[in-house]
Design brief:
With 172 residues, the chain is α+β, with helices and mostly antiparallel strands. It has three helices and seven strands, in the order αβββββββαα. A hairpin with a 5-residue loop joins β6 and β7. Bound molecules: ligand GNR and nickel (II) ion.
Length: 172
């Protein structure tokens, strides 16, 4: 397994729309293993393939709390079904928008249909943190970031700070 580099906004590669996976084969499973390792190393709870520069509709997540046993979950070609009218506000962060946290409003519950690690079709009813996280990751597959859901003023300020950070890191 390999830890891969995570792209940071405003990298235009994060804006690509990811393509469906045709077959969940060993290559896809190796990518999912790398993604999980990369996510754990970065202390994230979810990761979309595009964040490691692979434009495929693949997500890994683990919402286990500290001290709990790991609960890795793999979603291939996920689809969101029946999003609830009721919404939730959650403070969101993103490994591709490091150090910034903002409240985002999304449907409180949804159903997710996807292929699992073995290519088997599964359906999951999501609420709470799981519903928020899966929708955040689904956005990545469509080239959308959580900062697209906040005010332009806040978004522009975050992008400006990220660019400055990257300039400083490049000349360090
Ligand atoms: O680690 C992450 N935490 C998080 C917190 C609130 C809402 C969404 C997330 S996902 C994020 C990891 C990430 O960037 N996934 O794309
Ligand atoms: Ni993210």
């Amino acid at each position: 397994m390999t830890i891969r580099e995570i792209l940071t906004a405003p990298d235009p590669r994060l804006r690509q729309v990811s393509a469906p996976v045709e077959v969940v084969d060993d290559g896809v499973r190796a990518l999912m293993d790398d993604m999980l390792e990369t996510m754990y190393e970065a202390e994230g709870i979810g990761l979309a393939a595009i964040q490691v520069n692979v434009a495929k509709r693949i997500i890994v997540m683990d919402l286990a709390g500290e001290g709990e046993d790991p609960r890795p979950t793999y979603f291939v070609n996920p689809e969101i079904l029946d999003p609830s009218e009721e919404t939730n506000l959650y403070q969101e962060g993103c490994l591709s928008v490091p150090e910034f946290w903002e409240e985002v409003e999304r449907p409180a519950r949804c159903r997710v249909r996807f292929l699992d690690y073995f290519g088997k079709e599964q359906t999951l009813d999501a609420e709470g943190m799981l519903a928020t996280c899966i929708q955040h990751e689904m956005d990545h597959l469509n080239g959308v970031l959580f900062i697209d859901h906040i005010s332009r003023l806040k978004r522009d300020r975050i992008i400006r700070k990220l660019k400055k950070e990257q300039r400083l890191a490049a000349t360090a």
